[in-house]
Amino acid sequence: MWNTPDICDDYPTQVTPLAPLYQNFGGVKAFSGEVETVKCFEDNSRVKELLSTPGHGRVLVVDGGASLRCALIGDLIAASAIENGWSGIVIRGCCRDVHELQTMPFGVRALASIPLKSTRKGAGESGVTIDMDGVEVRPGMWLYADETGMLISDESLPIETGHRD
Ligand SMILES: O=C([O-])CC(=O)C(=O)O
């Protein structure tokens, strides 16, 4: 069974850990996939839009500016992401509907949870290079998340992955 410490040991020059600032809110503890990105601030228009298009197993990495004032996803957007085949989401910001997210077959990492939802006025960009707490993340990179932490790699690594309970 794969795990992030073994990946670090086996591919030390290919992976970079994300800062250990994120909590697990989803129903799957380990997930991986090709990265898509969103940069936004207290407006989840791009997040909702992207997660309602085919995910093909990808992970959406969102630089929400570390805002702790509102949530960029809840159970409805997560349900749409699952329906569209996304593997998970990593949010430099907050989520909500934690009770529901915990039961869903979806990877969710966020800084924190908060009951208030964000606005949706069309702000934000997708498919851009983002800075996740000092680590540059670009669309097409690969993300591996498990109980220990998260890794970013330029390319898909030759390991057996997928959701892990
Ligand atoms: O709709 C939103 O902006 C966030 C939310 O609560 C959900 O996804 O269920």
UniProtKB/TrEMBL annotation:
Substrate binds at G74, D75, L76, I77, R96. Pfam families: RraA-like. Belongs to the class II aldolase/RraA-like family. Mg(2+) binds at D97. Coiled coil: none annotated. Keywords: Lyase, Magnesium, Metal-binding. Transmembrane segments: none annotated. Gene3D superfamilies: Ribonuclease E inhibitor RraA/RraA-like. It is an enzyme of class 4 (lyase). Its EC number is 4.1.1.112, 4.1.3.17. It catalyses: 4-hydroxy-4-methyl-2-oxoglutarate = 2 pyruvate; oxaloacetate + H(+) = pyruvate + CO2. Homotrimer. This is 4-hydroxy-4-methyl-2-oxoglutarate aldolase. One of its GO terms (molecular function) is ribonuclease inhibitor activity. Its cofactor is a divalent metal cation; Mg(2+). GO terms for biological process: regulation of RNA metabolic process.
